Amino acid sequence: MTSRERVLSSLNHRQPDRVPVDLSGYRSSGIAAIAYPKLRAALDLEPRSIDVYDPVQQLAVVHEDVLDRLGFDTIELGRGFCLEDKWWTDWTLPDGTPCRMPAWAKPEKAGADWVLRSPSGKVIARMPEGSIVFDQVHWPFLDGEEDFTRIEGLYPEHMWTGIASPPGPSVTSAEELAGGARALRARTDRAILGLFGGNLLEMGQFYYRMDNFLAMLGEEPERAHRFLDVLVEIHLRNLESYLGAVGPYIDVIVFGDDLGAQNSPQISPRMYREFFKPRHAVMWARAKQLANVKVMLHCCGAVRPLLPDIIDAGLDAINPVQISCRGMDAEGLKRDFGRDLTFWGGGCDTQGILPQGTREEVREHVLRQCEVLAPGGGFVFQQVHNIMANVPAANILAMYQAVREYNELQRS
User: Fold this and answer.
1) Which of 3, 253, 372, 404 registers the highest number of CB atoms within 10 A of its CB?
2) pLDDT tens for each residue of 323-379
3) Is 122 inside any structural domain?
């Protein structure tokens, strides 16, 4: 099987020749730029320029030699863009490592902190001294300046929504977008993931701030519905344009909405059914009408109570499968939802085991997760969310070696 065939087989709940593996196929399966050169060194690969494709989370572009060496089966559509030096500018990571940032998002020094500015010049994110990620500090509708006609124009104010991640501002036309996607398709047999976004709950939190939007859902439902209706209209227009350009060249379209917290969903199943399920269903169905793609939702947290409705809305795959959250144990998820949903993740706990465990503990954990999630397809191996800056390179290698060990055991 090619990598693409392997991933699609698993998405179709057919047993592939081996467990497909993802690293950096989207913005929550990546590796921190601080950790990336240490992984390259552990693989005895020559040093390469550290390119940060996600300025907010500071994730590294993973080079082809690493993808090949460790046998990864996925690639993100943005790999077909931002290939020229003009799209990058020099910066330095918080640990002193030289890197390159996208030229359109270069952080600026503000006292002891670093800040990111929107195209209009507003400070929208701040990284305090001692931190290694940026936090949102600007919410356009926070101070009562709610103007739904401005929503589409404010999209670039939020680089964490997926709108401005590569290809981002490096693409100026649908023809250029299609051309880059076509060229990437021609040179790789990996499954290609297109990051769309289409956030609903999160977009409300980006615009109003989390506490205000959650309160609005409960106290002002009509106001929340008006906001979400406008948002879905914009998402559908963008979906038509996006898939009109890249639809023939991608395999998976990635939506986003973090619906969960550590111990429960952020919203009740009733609230999901009222505000979000019908809108997810419309967007996901339209994506499948426009292109031969599988629909994946990035959704962190303890979302088990929402899964029956999310599946009913038409979802094919969910990531990152946060197994350390309440109710998200792999056995129960596979038993109850494994016939209908692909688990793109859940392969290794990144809160405790990957950064803090021994290599043997990582190995045993990964083997167990594969034993539970892999049978019958419906599983793409990915650690739970990004590999963070403090993870030892030895543990990263132990994780992927364990996946290889599992595959070899299945073949023997």
Assistant:
1) 253
2) 999 999 999 999 999 999 999 999 999 999 999 999 999 999 999 999 999 999 999
3) no
SS3 label, residue 167:
coil
| Residue 49 within any structural domain of the chain | no
Domain assignment present for residue 80? The answer is yes
Distance CA 202, CA 257 (A): 6
Closest listed residue to residue 328, CA positions, set 255, 257, 379, 264: 264
Count of domains for the chain? 1
Q: Domain containing 286: what range?
A: 3-27+70-89+138-411
Give dist(CA 319, CA 301) in Å, integer.
10
CA distance 198 to 255: 5
CA distances from 145 to 57, 108, 116, 142, 282 (A): 28, 27, 22, 7, 29
C-alpha–C-alpha distance, residues 245 and 190, integer Å: 19
**Length of the chain (residues):** 412
CATH code of the domain covering residue 271: 3.20.20.210
What DSSP designation does 388 have?
A: P
CB 243 within 8 A of CB 251: no
Collapsing DSSP to helix, strand or coil, 135 comes out as strand
Q: Give the model confidence (pLDDT) of 199-212 as tens digits.
A: 999 999 999 999 99
Q: Give the global pTM.
A: 0.94
How many CB atoms neighbour CB 149 within 10 A?
A: 7
Q: Which residues, in sequence order, are CB contacts of 50 under 8 Å at separation 6+?
A: 33, 36, 37, 60, 93, 97, 98, 99, 100
Q: How far apart are CA 247 and CA 290, in angstroms?
A: 7
Burial of 270 (0-12, 13-18, 19+ CB in 10 A): exposed
Is residue 84 a part of any domain in this protein?
Answer: yes
**At 124, which amino acid appears?**
I
User: Cα 33 vs. chain centroid, distance in angstroms?
Assistant: 16
Alpha-carbon torsion 350, 252, 204, 158, what sign? positive
